[in-house]
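Why run this: before we spend reagent on co-expression, it is cheaper to look at a predicted model of the complex and decide which construct boundaries make sense. The entries below are exactly what would go into the expression plan.
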Amino acid sequence: AQSVTQPDIHITVSEGASLELRCNYSYGATPYLFWYVQSPGQGLQLLLKYFSGDTLVQGIKGFEAEFKRSQSSFNLRKPSVHWSDAAEYFCAVGPPTNDYKLSFGAGTTVTVRA
Amino acid sequence: DTAVSQTPKYLVTQMGNDKSIKCEQNLGHDTMYWYKQDSKKFLKIMFSYNNKELIINETVPNRFSPKSPDKAHLNLHINSLELGDSAVYFCASSRGTGMNTEAFFGQGTRLTVV
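The model came back. Tokens follow.
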């Protein structure tokens, strides 16, 4: 069974500082990998996704993520955080088949201080 | 225009009642989903419909019955509500069922059973 672990429940970062959110997965093969963001009172928005190819993936809002097969990780990064980045971030994995069944991590809450 | 809209946004009801949550998407997608986010923020897929046909049913109790009158709508009806049904329910849609597609999520419906 596939599983997703986000080790950090809550991260506080200063505006302008860099941000890294960790995601580890457990799966028999290389799954498809996603990062979603949930702003307060909003639905989930896809930040970026990895299927194959270049292991460094660029997303929206200045985010990027790096897939490391040896570590079964897909960490999300942003060089300089803005106050509007305060939100809940979810890592998700899905099987590389025609079966859209995402498994989500528990999420990481990001607080941005001025 | 909201891409995936759910109503109501908040729902408070008593145990034993029957309630419905409606979902509509105006993206022209042919696949729709219901996800449940529990109190620990875990998101888990419940159902998936493709062209009005059920393709994923993740061992959800029979009290939950999705209904898809057309490709743009996927409603969730819940009978005999229980305290454990309290959660945030997210509707989503995508084009096709393959993993190399993006799911668009609604804002969620926070269901509280008292």
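Chain A has a mean pLDDT of 91. The interface with chain B takes residues 32, 36, 41-46, 49, 51, 88, 90, 92, 94-104, 106-107 of chain A (CB under 8 Å). Bring this page to Monday's planning discussion.
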